[in-house]
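thought: fold this chain, then report.
action: predict
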Amino acid sequence: MNDLAPLLTPEGRALLDEVRGTAPADELAVATRLRRGHPAGLVSAALGQARLRQRAAAKFGAEDAERMFFTPNGVEQSTRASVAAYRAERLRALGVTSVADLCCGIGGDAIALARAGIRVLAVDRDPLTAAAARANADALGLAGLIDVREADVTEVDTAAYDAVFVDPARRGGRGRIFDPEAYSPPLSWAVRAALKAPHAALKVAPGIPHEAVPAEAEAEWISDGGDVKEAVLWFGTAPEAVRATLLPGPRSLLGRGLPDPEVRSVGRYLYEPDGAVIRAHLVAEAAEELDGGLIDPTIAYVTADALRATPYATAYEITDQLPFNVKKLKALLREREVGILTVKKRGSAVEPEELRRKALPKPQGRHSVTVFLTRVAGAPTMLIGAPARAVTGAGAS
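observation:
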Protein backbone atom coordinates (compact mmCIF):
# COMPACT_ATOMS: atom_id res chain seq x y z
CA MET A 1 0.00 0.00 0.00
CA ASN A 2 1.79 3.11 -1.24
CA ASP A 3 -1.15 5.50 -1.46
CA LEU A 4 -3.92 6.17 1.02
CA ALA A 5 -5.96 8.28 -1.39
CA PRO A 6 -8.13 5.42 -2.75
CA LEU A 7 -9.11 4.45 0.80
CA LEU A 8 -10.22 8.02 1.51
CA THR A 9 -12.77 8.00 -1.33
CA PRO A 10 -16.41 7.10 -0.63
CA GLU A 11 -15.82 3.67 -2.21
CA GLY A 12 -12.70 3.10 -0.11
CA ARG A 13 -14.39 4.16 3.11
CA ALA A 14 -17.36 1.91 2.38
CA LEU A 15 -14.99 -1.01 1.82
CA LEU A 16 -13.22 -0.27 5.10
CA ASP A 17 -16.55 -0.43 6.90
CA GLU A 18 -17.38 -3.71 5.19
CA VAL A 19 -14.10 -5.46 6.04
CA ARG A 20 -13.93 -4.21 9.62
CA GLY A 21 -13.11 -7.03 12.03
CA THR A 22 -12.36 -9.59 9.30
CA ALA A 23 -10.55 -12.56 10.82
CA PRO A 24 -7.31 -13.65 9.11
CA ALA A 25 -8.84 -17.03 8.25
CA ASP A 26 -11.69 -15.30 6.40
CA GLU A 27 -9.62 -12.83 4.36
CA LEU A 28 -9.37 -14.95 1.21
CA ALA A 29 -13.11 -15.58 1.03
CA VAL A 30 -13.89 -11.91 1.75
CA ALA A 31 -11.38 -10.73 -0.86
CA THR A 32 -12.79 -13.08 -3.49
CA ARG A 33 -16.31 -11.83 -2.89
CA LEU A 34 -15.44 -8.12 -2.84
CA ARG A 35 -13.28 -8.26 -5.98
CA ARG A 36 -16.41 -9.01 -8.00
CA GLY A 37 -17.52 -5.42 -7.50
CA HIS A 38 -14.35 -3.49 -6.61
CA PRO A 39 -10.80 -3.13 -7.98
CA ALA A 40 -8.54 -5.88 -6.66
CA GLY A 41 -5.93 -3.37 -5.46
CA LEU A 42 -8.48 -1.42 -3.45
CA VAL A 43 -9.83 -4.59 -1.85
CA SER A 44 -6.31 -5.64 -0.86
CA ALA A 45 -5.58 -2.19 0.56
CA ALA A 46 -8.81 -2.22 2.59
CA LEU A 47 -8.08 -5.65 4.03
CA GLY A 48 -4.51 -4.63 4.82
CA GLN A 49 -5.75 -1.50 6.57
CA ALA A 50 -8.29 -3.54 8.55
CA ARG A 51 -5.48 -5.82 9.69
CA LEU A 52 -3.37 -2.84 10.79
CA ARG A 53 -6.33 -1.35 12.67
CA GLN A 54 -6.78 -4.57 14.59
CA ARG A 55 -3.12 -4.51 15.60
CA ALA A 56 -3.28 -0.83 16.49
CA ALA A 57 -6.21 -1.29 18.88
CA ALA A 58 -3.79 -2.34 21.63
CA LYS A 59 -2.03 1.04 21.41
CA PHE A 60 -4.84 3.40 20.48
CA GLY A 61 -7.98 1.68 21.74
CA ALA A 62 -10.53 0.08 19.43
CA GLU A 63 -12.68 3.20 19.05
CA ASP A 64 -9.87 5.37 17.67
CA ALA A 65 -8.07 2.58 15.80
CA GLU A 66 -11.19 1.74 13.77
CA ARG A 67 -11.27 5.31 12.43
CA MET A 68 -7.56 5.87 11.92
CA PHE A 69 -5.20 5.06 9.05
CA PHE A 70 -1.94 3.20 9.57
CA THR A 71 1.23 2.05 7.90
CA PRO A 72 3.03 -1.10 9.09
CA ASN A 73 5.88 0.99 10.52
CA GLY A 74 3.38 3.42 12.00
CA VAL A 75 1.72 0.71 14.06
CA GLU A 76 5.06 -0.63 15.21
CA GLN A 77 6.76 2.65 16.08
CA SER A 78 3.97 4.97 17.22
CA THR A 79 3.60 5.96 20.85
CA ARG A 80 1.00 4.16 22.96
CA ALA A 81 -1.95 6.52 23.45
CA SER A 82 -1.70 6.48 27.25
CA VAL A 83 1.97 7.50 27.14
CA ALA A 84 1.33 10.21 24.54
CA ALA A 85 -1.54 11.59 26.64
CA TYR A 86 0.66 11.72 29.74
CA ARG A 87 3.41 13.57 27.87
CA ALA A 88 0.91 16.00 26.34
CA GLU A 89 -0.47 16.77 29.80
CA ARG A 90 3.03 17.51 31.09
CA LEU A 91 3.55 19.96 28.25
CA ARG A 92 0.16 21.57 28.84
CA ALA A 93 0.98 21.95 32.54
CA LEU A 94 4.18 23.77 31.55
CA GLY A 95 2.04 26.37 29.80
CA VAL A 96 2.79 25.11 26.28
CA THR A 97 0.13 26.09 23.72
CA SER A 98 1.93 25.15 20.50
CA VAL A 99 4.31 22.31 19.59
CA ALA A 100 6.43 21.48 16.57
CA ASP A 101 6.12 17.67 16.38
CA LEU A 102 9.14 16.59 14.34
CA CYS A 103 9.17 13.06 12.90
CA CYS A 104 5.44 12.87 13.65
CA GLY A 105 4.86 9.44 12.12
CA ILE A 106 1.18 8.60 11.68
CA GLY A 107 0.30 11.30 14.23
CA GLY A 108 -0.11 9.50 17.55
CA ASP A 109 1.59 12.19 19.61
CA ALA A 110 0.06 15.01 17.56
CA ILE A 111 -3.39 13.60 18.36
CA ALA A 112 -2.66 13.54 22.10
CA LEU A 113 -1.28 17.07 21.99
CA ALA A 114 -4.29 18.38 20.11
CA ARG A 115 -6.66 16.68 22.55
CA ALA A 116 -4.85 18.56 25.31
CA GLY A 117 -5.74 21.78 23.51
CA ILE A 118 -2.28 22.33 22.03
CA ARG A 119 -1.80 23.56 18.46
CA VAL A 120 0.54 21.23 16.52
CA LEU A 121 2.76 21.44 13.49
CA ALA A 122 3.30 17.77 12.58
CA VAL A 123 6.24 17.13 10.24
CA ASP A 124 7.39 13.96 8.50
CA ARG A 125 9.40 13.56 5.33
CA ASP A 126 7.76 10.31 4.19
CA PRO A 127 4.78 11.07 1.89
CA LEU A 128 2.69 8.06 2.92
CA THR A 129 3.33 8.63 6.62
CA ALA A 130 2.44 12.32 6.35
CA ALA A 131 -0.72 11.39 4.46
CA ALA A 132 -1.69 9.00 7.26
CA ALA A 133 -1.10 11.70 9.88
CA ARG A 134 -3.27 14.14 7.92
CA ALA A 135 -6.03 11.54 7.46
CA ASN A 136 -5.93 10.73 11.19
CA ALA A 137 -6.23 14.36 12.23
CA ASP A 138 -9.28 14.64 9.99
CA ALA A 139 -10.80 11.32 11.06
CA LEU A 140 -10.64 12.26 14.73
CA GLY A 141 -11.94 15.80 14.25
CA LEU A 142 -8.61 17.45 15.09
CA ALA A 143 -7.67 18.95 11.73
CA GLY A 144 -8.23 22.44 13.12
CA LEU A 145 -5.40 21.97 15.61
CA ILE A 146 -2.99 19.79 13.60
CA ASP A 147 -1.17 21.16 10.56
CA VAL A 148 0.63 18.28 8.81
CA ARG A 149 3.61 19.14 6.65
CA GLU A 150 5.62 16.79 4.44
CA ALA A 151 9.20 18.02 4.87
CA ASP A 152 12.68 17.26 6.15
CA VAL A 153 12.55 18.12 9.86
CA THR A 154 16.08 19.55 9.75
CA GLU A 155 14.81 22.29 7.44
CA VAL A 156 11.77 23.33 9.52
CA ASP A 157 11.78 26.65 11.39
CA THR A 158 10.37 26.02 14.88
CA ALA A 159 10.89 29.52 16.29
CA ALA A 160 7.16 30.27 16.38
CA TYR A 161 6.36 27.33 18.70
CA ASP A 162 6.43 27.08 22.49
CA ALA A 163 7.93 23.61 22.43
CA VAL A 164 9.58 21.05 20.20
CA PHE A 165 8.88 17.33 20.33
CA VAL A 166 11.21 15.00 18.43
CA ASP A 167 10.66 11.29 17.93
CA PRO A 168 13.61 10.19 15.78
CA ALA A 169 13.49 6.89 13.91
CA ARG A 170 15.20 4.17 15.93
CA ARG A 171 14.86 1.34 13.45
CA GLY A 172 16.85 0.68 10.32
CA GLY A 173 17.12 -2.02 7.71
CA ARG A 174 18.72 -4.33 10.27
CA GLY A 175 16.27 -3.70 13.10
CA ARG A 176 16.58 -1.60 16.25
CA ILE A 177 19.23 1.10 16.44
CA PHE A 178 20.98 1.37 19.80
CA ASP A 179 23.48 4.15 19.09
CA PRO A 180 21.69 7.51 19.65
CA GLU A 181 23.88 9.11 17.01
CA ALA A 182 22.55 6.58 14.47
CA TYR A 183 18.97 7.73 15.07
CA SER A 184 17.34 9.57 12.18
CA PRO A 185 17.87 12.45 12.83
CA PRO A 186 20.79 11.91 15.26
CA LEU A 187 20.30 12.68 18.94
CA SER A 188 22.87 15.49 18.75
CA TRP A 189 20.74 17.28 16.15
CA ALA A 190 17.59 16.77 18.23
CA VAL A 191 19.34 18.23 21.29
CA ARG A 192 20.37 21.31 19.32
CA ALA A 193 16.77 21.74 18.15
CA ALA A 194 15.55 21.31 21.73
CA LEU A 195 17.89 23.96 23.11
CA LYS A 196 16.43 26.55 20.72
CA ALA A 197 12.94 26.23 22.21
CA PRO A 198 11.57 27.27 25.62
CA HIS A 199 10.54 23.65 26.23
CA ALA A 200 11.28 20.38 24.47
CA ALA A 201 10.79 16.65 24.80
CA LEU A 202 12.90 14.11 22.93
CA LYS A 203 11.66 10.52 22.79
CA VAL A 204 14.53 8.04 23.00
CA ALA A 205 14.96 4.31 23.53
CA PRO A 206 14.67 3.20 27.18
CA GLY A 207 18.08 1.58 26.88
CA ILE A 208 19.84 4.91 26.31
CA PRO A 209 23.06 5.03 28.36
CA HIS A 210 22.83 7.52 31.22
CA GLU A 211 26.11 9.05 30.12
CA ALA A 212 24.45 9.96 26.78
CA VAL A 213 21.89 12.18 28.53
CA PRO A 214 22.84 15.86 28.05
CA ALA A 215 23.50 17.87 31.20
CA GLU A 216 20.74 20.30 30.21
CA ALA A 217 18.09 17.57 30.20
CA GLU A 218 15.81 15.89 32.68
CA ALA A 219 15.64 12.16 31.96
CA GLU A 220 12.38 10.29 32.48
CA TRP A 221 11.72 6.58 32.00
CA ILE A 222 8.07 5.61 31.48
CA SER A 223 6.36 2.26 31.95
CA ASP A 224 2.75 1.40 31.24
CA GLY A 225 1.16 -1.55 32.98
CA GLY A 226 4.59 -2.70 34.11
CA ASP A 227 6.19 -2.63 30.63
CA VAL A 228 8.89 -0.03 29.98
CA LYS A 229 7.85 1.90 26.89
CA GLU A 230 10.32 4.72 26.39
CA ALA A 231 12.58 7.35 27.84
CA VAL A 232 12.08 11.08 27.37
CA LEU A 233 14.66 13.86 27.60
CA TRP A 234 12.98 17.04 28.82
CA PHE A 235 14.41 20.51 28.29
CA GLY A 236 13.20 23.61 30.11
CA THR A 237 12.19 21.63 33.21
CA ALA A 238 14.80 20.41 35.72
CA PRO A 239 18.28 19.84 34.25
CA GLU A 240 20.00 16.62 35.40
CA ALA A 241 16.87 15.43 37.23
CA VAL A 242 16.00 11.74 36.87
CA ARG A 243 12.53 10.29 37.24
CA ALA A 244 10.68 7.02 36.74
CA THR A 245 7.01 7.37 35.85
CA LEU A 246 4.50 4.54 36.05
CA LEU A 247 1.23 4.49 34.14
CA PRO A 248 -1.63 4.31 34.74
CA GLY A 249 -1.48 6.98 37.39
CA PRO A 250 0.79 8.69 36.79
CA ARG A 251 3.10 7.99 39.71
CA SER A 252 6.60 9.42 39.53
CA LEU A 253 9.65 8.54 41.59
CA LEU A 254 12.28 11.27 41.60
CA GLY A 255 15.97 10.60 41.95
CA ARG A 256 17.65 12.00 45.04
CA GLY A 257 21.19 10.86 44.35
CA LEU A 258 21.12 8.14 46.99
CA PRO A 259 24.04 5.72 47.35
CA ASP A 260 23.51 2.05 46.50
CA PRO A 261 21.46 0.23 49.14
CA GLU A 262 23.27 -2.03 51.56
CA VAL A 263 23.35 -5.74 50.86
CA ARG A 264 21.53 -7.84 53.43
CA SER A 265 20.35 -11.39 53.87
CA VAL A 266 17.07 -12.38 52.25
CA GLY A 267 14.14 -11.37 54.41
CA ARG A 268 10.51 -12.39 54.37
CA TYR A 269 9.67 -10.28 51.33
CA LEU A 270 11.30 -9.80 47.95
CA TYR A 271 10.45 -6.72 45.90
CA GLU A 272 10.84 -6.66 42.13
CA PRO A 273 11.18 -2.99 41.09
CA ASP A 274 9.27 -1.75 38.07
CA GLY A 275 11.35 -1.72 34.89
CA ALA A 276 11.23 2.09 34.68
CA VAL A 277 12.70 2.31 38.20
CA ILE A 278 15.54 -0.01 37.20
CA ARG A 279 16.23 1.78 33.91
CA ALA A 280 16.28 5.13 35.72
CA HIS A 281 18.78 3.74 38.27
CA LEU A 282 16.39 4.56 41.10
CA VAL A 283 16.41 1.22 42.90
CA ALA A 284 18.00 2.95 45.91
CA GLU A 285 15.08 5.38 46.13
CA ALA A 286 12.59 2.51 45.95
CA ALA A 287 14.53 0.53 48.55
CA GLU A 288 14.53 3.47 50.94
CA GLU A 289 10.73 3.65 50.79
CA LEU A 290 10.64 -0.05 51.67
CA ASP A 291 13.34 0.09 54.35
CA GLY A 292 14.98 -2.63 52.30
CA GLY A 293 18.35 -3.70 50.98
CA LEU A 294 19.75 -5.64 48.05
CA ILE A 295 20.19 -9.41 47.97
CA ASP A 296 23.38 -8.92 45.93
CA PRO A 297 25.32 -5.78 44.97
CA THR A 298 24.75 -6.46 41.26
CA ILE A 299 21.09 -7.57 41.34
CA ALA A 300 18.07 -5.24 41.35
CA TYR A 301 15.98 -7.24 43.80
CA VAL A 302 15.12 -5.55 47.09
CA THR A 303 14.57 -7.56 50.26
CA ALA A 304 12.81 -6.49 53.46
CA ASP A 305 11.20 -8.00 56.52
CA ALA A 306 7.99 -5.98 56.27
CA LEU A 307 5.34 -5.66 53.59
CA ARG A 308 4.89 -2.03 52.62
CA ALA A 309 2.67 -0.38 50.05
CA THR A 310 4.51 0.92 46.99
CA PRO A 311 3.58 1.42 43.35
CA TYR A 312 7.23 1.08 42.35
CA ALA A 313 7.77 -2.63 42.99
CA THR A 314 5.87 -5.92 43.12
CA ALA A 315 6.11 -7.79 46.40
CA TYR A 316 6.56 -11.54 46.88
CA GLU A 317 6.54 -13.48 50.12
CA ILE A 318 9.57 -15.80 50.19
CA THR A 319 9.19 -19.24 51.76
CA ASP A 320 12.43 -20.96 50.74
CA GLN A 321 16.00 -20.12 49.80
CA LEU A 322 17.97 -22.89 48.09
CA PRO A 323 21.25 -23.19 46.21
CA PHE A 324 20.55 -23.71 42.53
CA ASN A 325 19.67 -27.40 42.16
CA VAL A 326 17.04 -28.65 39.72
CA LYS A 327 16.54 -31.98 41.50
CA LYS A 328 15.88 -30.33 44.86
CA LEU A 329 13.45 -27.90 43.24
CA LYS A 330 11.63 -30.73 41.48
CA ALA A 331 11.25 -32.64 44.74
CA LEU A 332 9.99 -29.54 46.57
CA LEU A 333 7.40 -28.82 43.88
CA ARG A 334 6.18 -32.39 43.95
CA GLU A 335 5.94 -32.40 47.75
CA ARG A 336 3.88 -29.18 47.74
CA GLU A 337 1.60 -30.27 44.91
CA VAL A 338 2.57 -27.40 42.64
CA GLY A 339 0.83 -27.29 39.27
CA ILE A 340 1.61 -23.73 38.17
CA LEU A 341 5.22 -22.57 38.17
CA THR A 342 6.27 -19.02 37.36
CA VAL A 343 9.99 -18.55 36.80
CA LYS A 344 11.70 -15.17 36.95
CA LYS A 345 15.39 -14.56 36.58
CA ARG A 346 17.92 -11.83 37.16
CA GLY A 347 21.61 -12.59 37.14
CA SER A 348 21.17 -16.18 35.97
CA ALA A 349 22.07 -17.80 32.66
CA VAL A 350 19.34 -20.44 33.00
CA GLU A 351 16.33 -19.93 30.73
CA PRO A 352 13.00 -19.90 32.61
CA GLU A 353 11.27 -22.20 30.12
CA GLU A 354 14.08 -24.73 30.38
CA LEU A 355 13.82 -24.82 34.18
CA ARG A 356 10.04 -25.04 34.05
CA ARG A 357 10.25 -28.02 31.71
CA LYS A 358 12.77 -29.87 33.87
CA ALA A 359 11.37 -29.05 37.31
CA LEU A 360 7.69 -29.48 36.48
CA PRO A 361 7.46 -31.90 33.53
CA LYS A 362 3.87 -32.99 34.32
CA PRO A 363 1.96 -30.19 36.09
CA GLN A 364 -0.73 -31.85 38.20
CA GLY A 365 -0.87 -30.05 41.53
CA ARG A 366 -3.35 -27.44 42.68
CA HIS A 367 -0.89 -24.87 44.05
CA SER A 368 1.24 -22.23 42.38
CA VAL A 369 4.66 -20.81 43.24
CA THR A 370 7.14 -18.33 41.84
CA VAL A 371 10.82 -19.23 41.58
CA PHE A 372 13.46 -16.51 41.28
CA LEU A 373 16.70 -17.59 39.63
CA THR A 374 19.23 -15.11 40.87
CA ARG A 375 22.37 -14.56 42.93
CA VAL A 376 22.51 -13.97 46.66
CA ALA A 377 25.83 -12.61 47.88
CA GLY A 378 27.36 -13.86 44.61
CA ALA A 379 26.05 -17.43 44.82
CA PRO A 380 23.54 -18.91 42.30
CA THR A 381 20.32 -19.18 44.29
CA MET A 382 16.67 -20.12 43.97
CA LEU A 383 14.19 -18.06 45.97
CA ILE A 384 10.75 -19.62 46.20
CA GLY A 385 7.57 -17.78 47.10
CA ALA A 386 4.33 -16.27 45.86
CA PRO A 387 2.94 -12.79 45.19
CA ALA A 388 2.11 -10.95 48.38
CA ARG A 389 -1.27 -9.29 48.74
CA ALA A 390 -1.90 -6.35 46.41
CA VAL A 391 0.59 -3.58 47.09
CA THR A 392 -0.46 -0.11 46.05
CA GLY A 393 0.18 3.33 47.35
CA ALA A 394 0.24 7.01 46.53
CA GLY A 395 4.00 7.19 46.14
CA ALA A 396 6.03 10.23 45.32
CA SER A 397 5.17 12.63 42.56
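thought: worth noting. The chain has a mean pLDDT of 93.
final: C-alpha coordinates above.
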